[in-house]
Amino acid sequence: MDTQIGSIPGPDKPSSHLAGAHPDAQAEPQRGFFSWYRDITPNERRTFWSCKVGYALDAMDTQFLSFVIPTLIATWGISRADAGFIGTATLLTSAAGGWVAGILSDRIGRVRTLQLTILWFAFFTFLCGLAQNYEQLLIARALMGFGFGGEWTAGAVLIGEAIRAKDRGKAVGMVQAGWAIGWGLSALLYALVFSLLPPETAWRALFLIGLLPAVFVILLRRMVKEPEVYVEHKAKAGQGAADRKSFAAIFSPGLLSITVRAALLTTGAQGGYYAITTWLPTFLKTERNLTVLGTGGYLAMVIVGSYIGYVISAYLTDRIGRKRNFILFAIGSMTIALAYTHIPVSNTLMLLLGFPLGFFASGIFSGMGALLTELFPTSVRGSGQGFCYNVGRAIGAFFPFLIGQVSQQMSLGHAIGIFAAAAYGVLILAALTLPETRGKPLDA
């Protein structure tokens, strides 16, 4: 886990999600990398850890599939295309789930929606372990994706509203870093379970373990409260009025432009990520004949790079602003994609390049939750965030397919480079046109 665990809790303070001036809230001296954590209230601290652990458990259950695909191919005799379709179906249903969860969080609350999505993805991960054939696994995994996508939206809105304006980027980014922790945990559980059980049984046991996050919901019910900005909004607006306008308002004349540009930003980030991470291993194995890709050392480098990328990006998004941070990490991601596909590398260099790959490709997502939280008013914050992030996920899910098609007319390396550059170019253009929201107070 991160170094905040050892921090000394500060005194209780009044709710501060409305604190900070825009954009001058960043002018105060920086006392330390994690000094912000000591200043947040006990309730904010509980919300932070609940969202971070929730993301980690979400990632753990989601990443199990990538480790068991070779076993499924050998055991059931399915093709690579069949296995890949499970992944695509999961991404598409997760996009739908994130959208629905955003709308739901505006109606029934951020915390309750987070609880429901965790129960959902844990239950259907468990069902994956009971599947008797490919079709059953496909259905269970697709339904699991619905909850996986929903959990991201509910958690991002919750932590974004709970933390004060001047620290929102750091807190939301550090929560996002929980993904790398869950990824690493899934790798460790895979190694442990497959060392104790035969493969045809081990893959089932791994999915069955995925039910454990459901226990975490008990803690959520006791520890975490709805953000005050959301509670105040509900009290002032009235439940019925807020619900009726919840979804359609993000397409109203006053918000449509923001919605479209934010969706383009997330499409660029996720399209670039899927373009790089889906096809790079195949390119390096088949065209560069590298063997390091299948080693635990390379995976560890990528995971460690991802976590540190999340942390650094979380700090920078409050330090230099949302827009500059996105542009910085987009340029870094494009550079690493070109390095992988156009520079001859050895196994040793490839092992080292795993770190910057994880750093930039994952770190770019660290500021996403804070920006989307600040772009939309409280009445439609969940709806707007859920729609924009998950439209990007749905469109980005097609990038691996398009690269596969285009690579029939050109080299795979060039196809990866073109799509990655196009995706991050779209992100940069969207970032340049969006307003800078660093330090922006949330409306009540």
Number of domains: 2
Helix content: over 70%
Could you tell me the radius of gyration in angstroms? 21 Å
Overall residue-averaged pLDDT value: 83
Count of DSSP H/I helices? 19
Listing every helix as H and every strand as E from the N terminus to the C terminus, the arrangement reads: HHHHHHHHHHHHHHHHHHH
What CATH architecture of the largest domain would you give? Answer: Up-down Bundle
**CATH homologous superfamily of the largest domain, by name?**
MFS general substrate transporter like domains
Mass-distribution shape: globular
Q: Which percent range describes the beta-strand content?
A: under 5%
Describe the structure.
The chain has 444 residues and is mainly α. The chain has two domains: 39-238, MFS general substrate transporter like domains (Growth Hormone, Chain: A), CATH 1.20.1250.20; 249-444, Growth Hormone, Chain: A, CATH 1.20.1250. 75% of the residues lie in helices and 0% in strands. The protein has helices spanning 35-39, 42-76, 80-108, 110-128, 134-162, 168-176, 178-196, 199-209, 213-223, 228-237, 239-245, 256-286, 296-319, 322-342, 347-363, 368-375, 381-396, 399-406, 412-433. Helix 3 packs antiparallel against helix 4, helix 5 (134-162) crosses helix 16 and helix 14 (322-342) runs antiparallel to helix 19. The model is unreliable at 1-28 (pLDDT under 50).
